[in-house]
Amino acid sequence: MKKKPTLFRNEEEVLTRATHVLEQFQEQDTQLKKDYERLLKDYKKLFKHTKLLVKMSDQQQSQLTTLTEGLQSSNIELQNKAEEAEEAVRASEKKLAQFLEAIPVGVFVVDASGKPYYANQKAQQILGKGIIPSFTAEELTEIYQAYLAGTTQLYPQERQPIVQALKGKISSVDDIDIHQNDKIIPIEVWGTPIFEENGNITYAIAVFQDITERKHADEERIQFTKKLAKLNQAYERFVPSQFLSLLDKQSVIDVQLGDQIEKEMTLLFADIREFTSLSEEMTPQENFNFLNAYLSRMTPIIHKYHGFIDKYIGDAIMALFPTSADDALQAAIGMLKTLADYNKTRGRPGRPCFGIGIGIHTGCLMLGTVGGQNRMDGTVISDAVNLASRYIERCEHFQKDGVPDDWDGVEALDSKC
Hints:
Alpha-Beta Plaits
């Protein structure tokens, strides 16, 4: 039971006494009696109001106590929630840190002002040192010795992906070298900004990896490509690209034994007059020097007029012109003019002048591959081949000083496939 306040414990006793005193003056009609009656009346009214106020104060106190207890309970609950949230954040950060440490690429983070904030172990391994908070993003190239690949020039600040990220841009580069003492590590870098909900940049992240192995692979690929190009050029010396095109082949490795086509083309034969007598006066080395000097002057002329060499037969040239007999005729004229110029450098002991014979014929022929599985060659089969070679002998009757006097003597016999 709630204890009665001290102020109201003797209220009834006081009122009883006051009433008893007033009864003693009942027979009197004095001013004192009147004043006492009024005072008693005011006393009762005062006590009534006082009791009401005290009652209201008790209610407010009870409400305040209840509210305070509720606030205390809410505060405790909020504290518990905050601790749980902090624990969850710490657990999340721990997991994130474990993840960042586990990935095989470097991760480097700066805050919105450009101050280094975080670098995982892979980043520290590649860069050769950890984060240095006292520096800014613009100073990172010098601190971590980042150079433009293949040079001794520090990497331009404005091109750094992490600097671009601080400007809100996503970018990547693969032309940075990190210099660590006597070691150079080429890296590829990606930069990206991290935004707050209001759109402000809060962090910039650079992710990078060591591309040493890739660089080596690229170097090997480039060297292989160059070697392959040289190999293809070497193959073309033995198997002309025009020969492959006529067989509808992309590469010499596509050529099979027995591949063939039938097509109308123009053949050109050319050989050196009295080569046997000339060669007998020369040593083996001089023979090869002489032939190569002659052939190196004739071959470009054939190519100039859209022909290609089918084969060299000793001192003789056998060329094919797939497009036009006029091309072969123009090539023959060019060969004779070139020979005349070449002879001007000779005409002395040990370097006599010489002449050539040229036979041209257009006809239907078969072009293909012959031989065995381990050795095959391209060849032409046709009567046109024999006719062209025979015309060389007839050229002697129409030729003076290596240049024909009458082009009517150059025959072109047509036969249809």
